[in-house]
Amino acid sequence: MKKTAAIFAVLLAARFAAAAAVSDAEMRQVYDAAKTPFKYGVVIAPPKGMLADSPSVFSKDGKWYMFYVLSDGDGYSTHIAQSDNLLDWHYKGEVLARKNNSDWDGQQSAGYAALQNIDWNGDWSLGKFGGKYWMSYLGGALKGYETDPLAIGIATSKDPAAAAQWSRLPSPVLSPKDSDARYFEKLTLYKSNIIADEKRLTGARFAMFYNAKTESGYERIAMAVSDDMLTWRRYGDAPVIDAGGGISGDPQVVKMGDLYVMFYFNAFCKGAPAGAFDTFAASRDLVHWTDWRGEPLVKPSEGCDKNFAHKPHIINHNGVVYHFYCAVGDQGRVIALATSKDLRKK
Predict the structure, then answer these.
(1) What is the number of H-type helices and E-type strands within the chain?
(2) Which domains does the chain have, with CATH numbers?
């Protein structure tokens, strides 16, 4: 009986996965909607001797804001910039400091906007929960560039647009040391993206997507869920994105009609283009994802991104797609922009 039940469960899971699959035609429609062939160039360059990384862009009260991280070689801190037009950005200040102490997150604090309006035709504002705005962040105790191990923390604020320090929970909400850490996430957890699961497709109120590794050089994207933003439980036994090697990372989930679309980057994956590039997957249920196998959304092509064009944050505004990404090339590690229409200054 147990063997029969197990076989039935596998067949049932396969049937659900098949029903959730996204067609080639639908995947092409997503690509056509999100492609950004025009490289606008560098929009944020870090101070001399530092690296800029991991943009996340949102709107508030008619203005645009970007969280991004800076590395001084010893660790990450998180900063905010402001723009009126999504092209010209002005530095405002720091929102998550590198504390430089012995806390679990004393040397690494890389933050990402949470609970964003993910509607492809929406306003890209941040939602509140419990009267507060929320941020997830990569935290670590050791100096260096993303030195293992890293875990995921949560911070809150009354005003996400302010250049002021966010309040942090005292402990990570997900760690590679957790007793329920899965086989592919026992060394380090990286960037996270938290969305509201309004339809409760996962059975929970909130879903978090993040990349993680057990062995160096092999990162997969996983999911966890929560009902209160404070206590998180891992969803399923397997990653939701797994290229079989290399790196799949830095997810951002948006909603295009009936489809959820996850923008993320690939690097060093077998059979993939060289360097690091941005691509996507699509899903009907947040659980089963269909990978795009066609042309990358952004790939290395210019001097500023000749090595890596990766770590996407993509928004659609007034008929233009703005694809912010981390570019690594002849200007160091910077934040660059590609667009669906040619907005370059003539």
Answers:
(1) 2, 20
(2) 23-339 (2.115.10.20)
Cα separation of 92 and 94, whole Å? Answer: 7
Per residue in 27-49, pLDDT (tens digit) is: 999 999 999 999 999 999 999 99
**Burial readout 310-329 (b: 16 or more C-beta within 10 A, e: otherwise):** bbbbbbbbeeebbbbbbbbb
For residue 18, give every residue at least 6 positions away whose Cβ sits within 8 Å of its Cβ, in sequence order, or none.
none
Q: Which amino acid is at 341?
A: K
List pLDDT tens digits, range 66-83.
999 999 999 999 999 999
pTM for this predicted structure: 0.93
What pLDDT digit, counting tens, does each position of 150-204 carry?
999 999 999 999 999 999 999 999 999 999 999 999 999 999 999 999 999 999 9
CA nearest neighbour of 151 among 182, 177, 170: 177
Residues 247 and 218: their CA atoms lie apart, in Å, by: 5
> ∠ CA 296-301-305 to the nearest 5 degrees?
95
Q: What's the maximum distance between 2 C-alpha atoms anywhere in the chain?
A: 72
Residue 53 tokens read as: 């990384």
Amino acid, res. 84: D
Q: Quote the CA–CA distance of 309 and 263 in Å, as a whole number.
A: 13
Cα–Cα distance measured from residue 254 to residue 119, given in angstroms and rounded to the nearest whole number: 6
pLDDT of 345 = 73
